[in-house]
C-alpha cells in the first residue's frame, strides 16, 4: 500500500489542478482566499521535503506499529478498501 501512495498523490494533484481551473474544490478556495499558486506549490514542496527528511524515523515507527498490531494486514487492507475515498473526492472537498 505504501508503494501506491506516490501514485495516488499524483492523481490527487491532477484533480486539484483540474478543479482549480474549474474554480472548484480546496485548491480553488485556497486561491480565492488570496493565495497565489506558487505559494501552494511551496507548501507541497515543503511537505514532501519533510517526508523525505523524516523517512527513516517514519519507517521505524511503522515497523513498531506493525509489531504491536491487533489486526492482520489482510483485515487492515479490507478496512482501507471499505472506507476509502478517491483522490478525486479529496480534491473536491
> Radius of gyration in whole Å, from Cα?
16 Å
Q: Summarize the amount of helix as a percent range.
A: over 70%
* Structure summary, number of beta strands: 0
Distance between the termini: 23 Å
**Biggest sheet architecture:** none
Describe the global form. Answer: flat
Secondary-structure-based class equals mainly alpha
Folded structure, characterized:
The chain has helices spanning 5-22, 25-32, 37-53, 55-67, 73-82, 87-92. Helix 1 (5-22) crosses helix 2 (25-32). It is mostly helical.
Write the layout of secondary structure elements.
Elements: H1 5-22, H2 25-32, H3 37-53, H4 55-67, H5 73-82, H6 87-92
Helix pairs in contact: 1-2
Concise account of the structure shown:
It contains 6 helices and no strands. The protein is mainly alpha-helical and 93 residues long.
Based on the model shown, name its key terms.
93 residues; mainly alpha; 0% strand
Amino acid at each position: 500500500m505504501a508503494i501506491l501512495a506516490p501514485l495516488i498523490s499524483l492523481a490527487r494533484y491532477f484533480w486539484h489542478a483540474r478543479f482549480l481551473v474549474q474554480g472548484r474544490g480546496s485548491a480553488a478556495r485556497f486561491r480565492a482566499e488570496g493565495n497565489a499558486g506558487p505559494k501552494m506549490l511551496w507548501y507541497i514542496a515543503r511537505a514532501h521535503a519533510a517526508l523525505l527528511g523524516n523517512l527513516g524515523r517514519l519507517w521505524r515507527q511503522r515497523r513498531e506499529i506493525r509489531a504491536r498490531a491487533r489486526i492482520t494486514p489482510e483485515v487492515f487492507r479490507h478496512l482501507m478498501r471499505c472506507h476509502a475515498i478517491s483522490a478525486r473526492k479529496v480534491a473536491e472537498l
